[in-house]
Amino acid sequence: MKYVLNKADNVYFVSEKLKEKAVLLCGNEIEEKSAITPNTVNINKFKPTHNERKILTEYSQPTVVFIGNLVKQKGLHYLLEAKKLSETKYTLLIYGDGPQKESLNAYIENNNLKDTHLMGKTDIPEKIIPESDIMVLPSISEGASIVALESMSCGKALIATDTGNIANIITNNENGIIVPPRNPKILQEQIDNLVTDKEKRNRIGKNARQLIVNEYSKMNIPYLKKEEGV
Prior knowledge:
This protein is α/β, with parallel strands linked by helices. It has 2 domains: 2-36; 63-215, Glycogen Phosphorylase B (Rossmann fold). The protein is 38% helix and 14% strand. The chain is built from 9 helices and 8 strands. Helix 7 links the parallel strand 7 (157-161) and strand 8. It is globular, with a radius of gyration of 19 Å.
């Protein structure tokens, strides 16, 4: 990796944190040839909907939804522990597949977690997300999360751990909720808070949608352009 970065004429990063890691690896000389090109989202595909539910009709509201790979770094055992600690009633839907599927299923069964379902992989996140009430990303480590942008673009209140590029996207309690990783108690408290406060969910979701439209829309950000006044 160091060799490739040093030989490249230009290097583009999707987040400031990834750029900082590259500078630590390769030295300050990489600074002059690097630029931040954030991930973007199709705001016409991932958008709020005010229609009645068509997919999640059998699940009681509010629904808290995760979409991603079922791997250790996604922090899903912490999410299940937060569900176990919960003092409110909500449905937790986990979409995805991966090596942790069996252990997650075992945790759900062994702890008798009510209204908690492993849904399998989905290829229609643009339809699932708008029907959710709260989106959650409990990652232990993360790069630049596309699902975070998609969730916010759909006008959903997102709870995400302070990993990767999240803190550069979310202003806490304004357009999303940031929680520390590996902390199921705080995660539980923040989920419960949004579950019981629909007005706050709606406010955060509205602000999130506006942020994505203004700053992370594919229509607004030229692809691979350095910040040189072009």
